[in-house]
Recover the amino acids of this structure.
């Protein structure tokens, strides 16, 4: 029996593996996803810094990229994290936001060519003392691979958009899991009026397939 990490989502989202591969599935409507409806992660700090992504190979983005991975990661941080008051500060940073594209299969007379997209996202949340020393941190990383037929630029763009959205869903779940695991002492765990606190995350063995 192989052990896989299962995140029991407190986010009302499907459970998604932190590293997954799939064939192109149903069409995903265009547009930027939102995380504002999810339970916010309130940190017991006086201020929160959300850093823009730097440049480098870790941020390489192959075109087309209707939704750049870094933009999705920043959106997640801005809509999920907040400073609830307290000593010290918190800092969210993007370490990897990469989208790559490769030829999966050449097209033939009766079949279109197919391409594979890979999206890798890695981010870190640090809690800093008043003296700017790191007193706690949580890191989340996910990878999503997606392969599908590409007959034209529109299908290529749709495939790129879909893989970034799926990676964003994965990261959202993994990020919350890691924050609650490693930074629980800096989370405000008192529910606001009308809110329900999420249940603890569980790990369990999944049956081998």
């Amino acid at each position: 029996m192989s052990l896989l990490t299962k995140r029991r989502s407190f986010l009302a989202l499907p459970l998604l593996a932190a590293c997954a591969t799939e064939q192109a599935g149903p069409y995903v409507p265009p547009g930027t996803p939102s995380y504002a409806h999810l339970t916010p992660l309130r940190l017991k700090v006086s201020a929160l810094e959300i850093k823009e992504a730097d440049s480098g190979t870790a941020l390489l983005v192959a075109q087309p990229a209707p939704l750049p991975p870094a933009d999705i990661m920043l959106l997640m941080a801005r809509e999920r994290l907040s400073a609830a008051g307290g000593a010290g500060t918190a800092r969210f940073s993007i370490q990897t936001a990469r989208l790559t594209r490769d030829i999966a299969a050449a097209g033939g007379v009766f079949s279109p060519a197919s391409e594979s997209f890979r999206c890798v996202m890695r981010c870190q949340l640090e809690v800093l003392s008043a003296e700017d020393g790191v007193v706690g941190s949580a890191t989340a990383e996910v990878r999503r691979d997606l392969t599908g037929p590409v007959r034209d630029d529109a299908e290529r763009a749709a495939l790129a958009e879909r893989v970034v959205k799926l990676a964003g869903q994965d990261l959202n779940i993994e990020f919350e899991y890691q924050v609650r695991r490693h930074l629980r002492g800096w989370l405000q765990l008192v529910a606001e009026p009308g809110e329900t606190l999420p249940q603890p995350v569980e790990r369990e063995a999944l049956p081998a397939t």
Remarks:
- Residues 35-186 form a domain with the Double Stranded RNA Binding Domain fold (CATH 3.30.160).
- The longest strand covers residues 89-105.
